[in-house]
Design a protein that fits this description.
about 80% helix, Serine Threonine Protein Phosphatase 5, Tetratricopeptide repeat, mainly alpha, 3 domains
Length: about 375
């Protein structure tokens, strides 16, 4: 038995599907306890990414314990197969197997992604009955996140308030929810409560509250949180970089934004784009075009948000030929446009034609 267990674990670690199937066949031929090794084989198939094989084996097992149910449900959720995950969850309940904290942590995500609030509320009720809502931070966080995605922030807050032992993950889930729904004052209030309790924020917490500060034009709190980012050693984290640039940009502090960008050891394409967008929004189009050129020189591939902003900058500066050149380069790089980039390009072309008409009228007169 130990040999089979060891072989299955090695196959899962090395993602060796062929060997795992051979072990599976050998177990069946040897007459070994299939019910015992079946659970381990399912885990092996899941870790190898062969969900269909895992599901087939799962359906053949006579007795399926909660760990295996959880493995199947979470693997389907993580691969975007939310409908199948919910069907598995319902089958589990029908067979009289009660969910545990791991089940709830996975299934609430499935409910929000599939958009089935009523099912989520029923599962929430069961979590309350089983005592997981107030006693398990992971389950509470999953519920708060689910209600946030359904824009039910009042329900999310009620769940949050009932939890006995709040941690950084739970606080962050509520803060992110408030931030995403434009409730920036509430996000900062929760953040202050978190700091008062001595809970150290992580990069996601800080990124969200920085954006909220920017939305509120709250430079005082923004600079204070910037200090926390530095103190926590999170300046190199992309989320922190982008949020700092966004905050200073929305507070119209372009020089501070430039200073933050220049101090970065490395900037991802997301950071470059955030910087360029902020410059354009604050009327610094010439600087934005210069930064864009530097971005290309650094071999950073822009995305359609970058393209949209820089085309608007070129249009505002009447740099029509430059705008067309940039668009041509983007097409060669395979950067697809979106409705905003298309609108910027149309505006650019319109300005060029308008200038041409004015020139013709001037010449003729």
């Amino acid at each position: 038995m130990n040999l089979y267990t060891s072989l299955i674990a090695q196959c899962a670690q090395k993602k060796s599907i062929t060997t795992l199937k051979a072990v599976h066949t050998h177990i069946l031929k040897s007459g070994s306890l299939f019910s015992f090794f079946g659970h381990k084989l399912i885990d092996g198939y899941i870790k190898c990414g062969i969900i269909a094989e895992a599901r087939k084996l799962f359906d053949e097992l006579p007795n399926r314990h909660i760990v295996t149910w959880n493995s199947m449900i979470s693997s389907h959720v993580s691969r975007g197969k939310t409908k199948e995950a919910i069907e598995l969850y319902n089958s589990m309940l029908f067979e009289g197997v009660l969910p545990d904290a791991y089940t709830f942590s996975a299934i609430f995500k499935a409910f929000s992604e599939l958009g089935v609030l009523r099912h989520g509320q029923k599962a929430h009720g069961l979590a309350v009955v089983l005592g997981f809502e107030v006693s398990d931070g992971f389950v509470a966080t999953a519920i708060v996140d689910m209600y946030s995605k359904f824009d039910r922030m009042r329900d999310a807050r009620l769940v949050f308030d009932r939890v006995l032992d709040k941690d950084v993950v739970l606080f962050t889930a509520l803060i992110v929810g408030y931030n995403q729904h434009g409730l920036d004052s509430e996000a900062l209030e929760v953040f202050e409560e978190m700091v008062d309790k001595g809970i150290k924020p992580n990069e996601y917490t800080l990124a969200s509250v920085l954006v909220s500060c920017g939305n509120l034009g709250d430079l005082v709190n923004g600079k204070s949180i910037h200090g926390l980012v530095v103190k926590s050693g999170l300046e190199s984290v992309v989320a922190s970089q982008t949020s700092l640039l966004t905050m200073y940009s929305k507070c119209s502090k372009v020089e501070d934004s430039i200073k933050v960008f220049n101090q970065l050891a490395y900037a991802s394409h997301v950071t470059w784009t955030s910087f360029i967008v902020g410059l354009v929004q604050n009327g610094r189009e010439e600087v934005a075009v210069s930064v864009f050129r530097e971005m290309i020189r650094c071999s950073i591939i822009p995305n359609h948000f970058t393209l949209s902003s820089i085309l608007h900058a070129c249009s505002s500066l009447a740099m029509l030929e430059v705008g067309e050149q940039i668009h041509a380069v983007m097409m060669k790089l395979g950067v697809d446009g979106n409705k905003y980039a298309d609108a910027a390009l149309i505006h650019l072309i319109w300005r060029k034609r308008k200038r041409l008409v004015l020139y013709i009228i001037t010449v003729k007169s």
